[in-house]
Amino acid sequence: MNDIMQRLRHSYISGLTRPLSWRLQQLSQLEQLLNEHEQALLDALQSDLGKSAAEGWLSEIGFLQSDLRHTRKHLKRWMKPKRVGQPLLTAPGRSYIYPEPLGVVLIMGAWNYPLQLLLSPLIAALAAGNCAIVKPSELAPKTAELLARLLPDYLANEAVQVITGGADVAAALLEQRFDHIFYTGGGRVGRIVMSAAAQHLTPVTLELGGKSPAVVLSDADLQTSARRIAWGKWLNAGQTCIAPDYVLVAAEVHDRFVQALVDAITELYGDTPREAEDYGRIVNTAHWQRLVNYLDDGTIASGGEHDKDERFLAPTVLTQVSPESPVMQEEIFGPILPIIAVPNLAEAIHFIRERDKPLALYGFSASAHSLQQLTEQTHAGSQCNNDTLMFMLNPALPFGGVGPSGMGSYHGKFGFDTFSHQKALMHRPFWFDPKFRYPPYTTFKQKL
Ligand code: NAD
Questions:
Q1: Percent of the chain clearing pLDDT 70 (strictly above)
Q2: Is 252 a catalytic residue?
């Protein structure tokens, strides 16, 4: 690892990664990799997570391709030093904000979107002119192996290295001195990453998780809300960091909403989701067992079927759930959706505010005023009204958590900024050099 670090640092210092042309070339190489190995990547996702080709394309490969297009289109402008104003005190002169790369960065991915969560930060890191070590998650082994094989064929090896392995490898990596660490995963390891980074005063971006609530008010279009919640929840079998974790629904429409949700599940996955091509599997047996244990925490209104050999767990709706039960204390990160009735918006807001700041918050209502109250009176990494997940497809929006759901953000220009230092740059001419700024401060003393 020391050798790899030295090699990357040497490349960085040599200036290799600085020119726009180099950055653009690396990004097009990445695009070529995605195009030429689309099928192999989809197969790896299928093998790791039972992801259908359509889902794998939509949520991973297609996402990355549009990220690449957006970055390549705007990169020249993002890199340009931005001229800013100059107060009289510092005139004459010119001031700029000059984005400079950070150096050698570490990117650690999570297993649930093993391609997107590793390569999207890499796109941002390369665009910003950095060298990078990428560490795929060991829990999606087929994707990790494939990336470790393909990336060196497409990207400059002296600037990008893939290191595979588990917690021990990650721990060894974290002992190195990086210029930035970008970590995606759970809060437990997030704490390990942050304390390791503190030893070198390395800044971190932590893309973590948590319990993202959906609030459904009585004036919402219940059918559309249910369909959109079902889509966001059961994509990737619920293993999405911004999936709605639980629903707070207005008591007066509770039963109608639950029915609409059950109907939506049938609409999306048919009567036997186990046979649905577009329904995924749980990543491993340990996670499957953890999820099956939650089934006892409420009344199963729909779903509940499970099979260990297949790591299958049906889309499940739980009602009569106590807020104190494990399913409401821990991030579910799987296909179980608890529904809790609340009397009104104020109670829903109170419920959310009593808990950790979530990564995402979803409000469903026909009332702009109610949705505004939800925005103003809660905290969340992101909020999306009357839909789920869609906000992450807009590269003009930052993606990241707040408090226990993370720190820092990326996507589009926000990713470029995360991997850049905004250097203050001032130019002053020699020709104007009045004496009053220098001691002895006679001019000022006369005024005192
Ligand atoms: P994971 O197990 O894949 O771990 C993430 C990374 O941490 C991996 O690279 C892994 O090798 C490394 N790691 C594991 N143990 C370690 C240790 N002891 N020391 C150092 N490194 C270690 O992922 P996970 O934590 O199971 O991911 C699920 C969590 O991630 C959920 O909470 C989810 O909400 C969150 N998540 C967040 C985002 C986001 O964008 N905010 C995206 C996906 C997942």
A1: 99
A2: no
What ipTM was reported for this prediction? Answer: 0.95
- pLDDT tens digits for range 16-37: 999 999 999 999 999 999 999 9
Residue whose Cα lies nearest atom 43 of ligand 1: it is 241
Ligand 1 atom closest to 400 (CA): 41
Query: CA-to-CA distance for 332 and 243, rounded, in angstroms?
Result: 10
Backbone angles phi, psi at 399, to 5 degrees: -120, 120
Report whether 378 contacts 352 (CB < 8 A): yes
Instruction: Please state, in angstroms and as integers, the Cα–Cα distance from residue 99 to each residue in 10, 87, 421, 437, following that order.
Output: 21, 22, 6, 30
- Residue 431 has a CB neighbour count (10 Å cut-off) of 6
Is there a contact between 319 and 299 (Cβ–Cβ < 8 Å)? Answer: yes
- Out of 31, 55, 60, 241, the active site residue is 241
The pTM of this model reads 0.95
Give the span between the Cα atoms of 18 and 140, in whole angstroms. Answer: 33
- Report the atom number in ligand 1 closest to the C-alpha of 187: 32
- Contact predicate 48/111, CB 8 Å: yes
CA of residue 78 relative to chain centroid, distance: 21
Domains and CATH numbers, the chain: 1-208+406-425 (3.40.605.10), 213-393 (3.40.309.10)
Eight-class DSSP state of 204: E
Helix (H) or strand (E) segment spanning residue 121: helix 116-127
Q: In what order do the strands lie in the sheet with 94-101?
A: 82-84, 94-101, 420-427
